[in-house]
What does this fold into?
Amino acid sequence: MKQFWIITFVLIFALCSGFYITAAINNEDIINAGLIQIKFHDEIINYVKNSKPIASSYKNKSSFYKYKDFGITLTKKEEKIKEISVMKYLRKHNVRKNLKKYNNYFRLNGDIYIISEYINGISIHKANVDDNHIKQLMNLFFLLDKALLYNRDLSPQNMLIDKDDVYLIDFDYINFINNKGCIAKSGMEYDFCKDIDDCLKKYIQENSFYEDKDNPYHDINLPFPSNLNNFEYRTLSDILHNKREENNEKETLFFKNYLKQKAKYHKKRYKEYKRIFDTHTPISQKLKKGLEKENAAANVLKIDNHYIYNIEYKKIIIKFLSYSFRHGNDGQTDGKKQKDKTNKRIKELFNDIEMNLKRLENQKEINDDINLYVQTQYEWVNYWKDYNN
It folds into this structure.
């Protein structure tokens, strides 16, 4: 009997110890290196020391390893730690799905070891992206918008597809609306909003739209920055290209469904920002008009219309060409010749958009939303014509 109780006690102790170690490793709020199990420390250090990284970034001075179910980032870049703060802020605002878990970090001899959930996925531009993935992304972009955080680097390598789910894995470059109601750029310290509604009201009082031509993820016509817009500049063109490689019909069907999801995204933004506007009066005519344009986009993009499809599709190509050329993806050899070729193509696309806008205006089924949508697209074309000259 005595032996039975001894064995029982040992088993219970072992189970509790194992639970404690697991909890310590997985607790997302622990950032004190001293609270991580020393044995786990040693395992990580020895593994990294004797293994080759599965990925490296010279620019970020980082190497990435897979150890068991963990992703280990070895870096000297202090800014990488800030992602832990970003993730904690997002989880506080119920943004959890489609993000990997940042569990902990510790330091050793000037190196930083960041321990996170390992995502066994492939880059979105190499994956078979379906409507479910787009639906997840649209919801994620809206939640990021709602949390007043804007990712400036929604490039393909920062989005992974793992079976049915898509993950956003990098928050090195972010902007956000801070407690003063101003757009702040990423840095080591974050003045994240303590009260979202209060920050939005202060932002409204600033009576301005955010513009950043070097990172054109904003939409000049909307009252608040948009994560979706950056996605369209950086990544959507690659996805459409892959669909087109399969066949044109797949690309067409995919983009039609994309526009329907985009309409829902704009409708959710409209409802959220209208709720804030309704509790804060007066607001400027500029912001009021921006909100009306948000609602018009939601109502128009869900219409299955050939002209709307062409307008939106050609905008994606212009966004891609404008961004990629300015960030070195094009024109690496014979820059002037490539620039002239790109600008010629962009002008042709602008002409195509204007032609489709005129045809859309001449339709019988015209209404106030379509009129406002057309006006908004003309403003967009004129803005980017100036930008590309």
Observations:
- The first helix runs from residue 2 to 26.
